[in-house]
Specification:
It comes from Cryobacterium cheniae. This protein is an all-alpha fold. The protein has one domain. It has 16 helices and no strands. Helix 1 packs across helix 5, helix 3 runs antiparallel to helix 9 and helix 6 crosses helix 12.
Length: 352
């Protein structure tokens, strides 16, 4: 059953690479251009997944078990994480799939993200992180706090996101876009050449996110998609050799890396790209801060902002807000504030 994590990870990495699904870009665009197109795509994943996860819970396939809300650690960690993803040039999954494309800067970011995740969960930083996460309030979910069924909230979310999506679809230019002649036909053309739309990509990711719940649950890992914990587990396995830490989530993140490589190789987008010294330093620093921030917040842009939001957890929605604020602070400091002197390519995720 653990191999289902690898299979789902392959599909997720392939989809994110081909769709250029960059959460960092979605957050950054709010501050640079005011565009909400990619944020809307991200929210489509949340809304569709929310329908699926509460349906699975109602059917008894999974049982959602909300935990106390570590409000202080979530706010601090989410801000740090949002700031860090601009430095690293991508969030957790973005770093995985860009590493699969051959970006050496993302290799550095990924290594230090995993390393500092492990340090924050089980190593030298575990004590301070645990102390901050120990500052909690009983309220854990929005519907639990309000004392209502989650389904009205699901309906509101789906309706709101649907209206946003319709708005962006209406803004699409009716004029055909110029493109190179297709080099192949059939399935290969569809998978490796044809441009994947933001909203189509979001729907595929949402379906995979829903599927992750029962597949992960069947192995004893009672959660959906998650990146930080599995990344930390890989480091712990390499250092301690404890095979028990290798769970469904570890296979998932390895699958993301391999799936992105297959997609990049098949589409001709794979190549080794070596960053300059400044980009390397920023990638390392961004990766390290990502690991600390995600551990403090209890998850990254996937585990918190995409998955915990779908279950209407306070941790997820507060994380999403402060990740966006953190991204805005770093964007102002490193991108828009440095526009007159130039910007490092690693700070501008290529999701377009």
């Amino acid at each position: 059953m653990l191999l289902t994590g690898l299979g789902l990870g392959l599909a997720l990495g392939f989809t994110m690479q081909r769709g250029r699904f960059c959460v960092t870009g979605a957050f950054r665009d709010l501050w640079i251009t005011g565009s909400t197109r990619w944020l809307t795509a991200f929210l489509i994943v949340v809304a569709v997944q929310s329908v699926g996860v509460f349906a699975l819970d109602a059917a008894g396939v999974i049982t959602l078990d909300p935990q106390p809300f570590a409000w202080l650690a979530t706010i601090l960690g989410a801000f740090i994480f949002g700031f860090a993803i601009v430095l690293a040039g991508g969030c957790a999954t973005g770093t995985y799939y860009r590493a699969g494309e051959g970006l050496v800067g993302s290799w550095f970011a990924l290594i230090f993200y995993a390393l500092f995740s492990a340090m924050s969960k089980t190593g030298a930083l575990a004590g301070p992180v645990a102390a901050l996460r120990g500052v909690t309030v009983p309220a854990s979910t929005i519907h639990g706090f309000l004392g209502v069924s989650p389904w009205p909230l699901v309906a509101i979310l789906v309706t709101g996101v649907g209206l946003l999506a319709r708005h962006h679809l209406r803004l699409r230019s009716p004029l055909p876009m110029a493109s190179l002649p297709a080099r192949s036909t059939g399935l290969r053309h569809l998978l490796f050449e044809k441009k994947w739309g933001a909203f189509t990509t979001a729907l595929i990711i949402a379906a995979l996110a829903i599927l992750a719940w029962p597949l992960s649950w069947a192995t004893g890992r009672e959660s959906g998609l998650g990146i930080t914990g599995p990344s930390s587990a890989i480091v712990n396995y390499l250092v301690q050799g404890d095979a028990e830490v290798i769970d469904w989530g570890v296979y998932l993140v390895l699958g993301i890396l391999i799936g992105a490589f297959i997609a990049a190789k098949g589409s001709g987008e794979f190549r080794i790209r070596i960053p300059d010294a400044l980009t390397t330093v920023r990638s390392i620093g961004g990766g390290a801060l990502m690991g600390v921030g995600a551990s403090l917040a209890g998850g990254c842009t996937i585990g918190n902002a995409m998955v915990n939001t779908a279950t209407f957890g306070f941790q997820g929605w507060v994380s999403l807000l402060f990740m966006i604020i953190g991204t805005g602070a770093a964007t102002r400091l490193f991108i828009t504030g440095s526009a007159r002197v130039g910007t490092s390519p690693a700070l501008v995720p290529a999701n377009r």
